[in-house]
Design brief:
Blueprint: E1 8-16, E2 37-47, E3 50-62, E4 69-72, H1 75-93
Antiparallel strand pairs: 1-2, 2-3, 3-4
This protein binds zinc ion.
Length: 96
Amino acid sequence: MSFVPIICGKQDWDKDYAQTQQYSSLYCPNCHNFQVRPVKRREFITIWFIPVFPIFWGKQVVCPICNWRQDFKNDEQLQKIVREQEHIRAGKAGPG
Ligand SMILES: [Zn+2]
C-alpha cells in the first residue's frame, strides 16, 4: 500500500471589477502611485489543486506596485473612495 500525501494549497483570483476609467487609476496611500484598481477577489484552499473551501470572497482595491489592499463592500463604498481621491488629486494638482 502506498502513501499518497494530500497536497493542500491556496489559490487566489483577481478579476477586474469594472472597466470604467473612473475606477482605473486610484491613489495608493502606501506607495503614492495612481495604479490602484478595484478587483473581485476569491481565495480558496485547494486540495490537489482543486479549489475546495473559500476563505475570502469579496471586493478589494489593489495596488499592483506594492500589493496594498483594502476591502470594500459595494458600489457605494467604492464611490466614497473615489470621492476621497478627488480631494487628493485636487490637492496635488494645485500650486503647493
Ligand atoms: Zn502601492
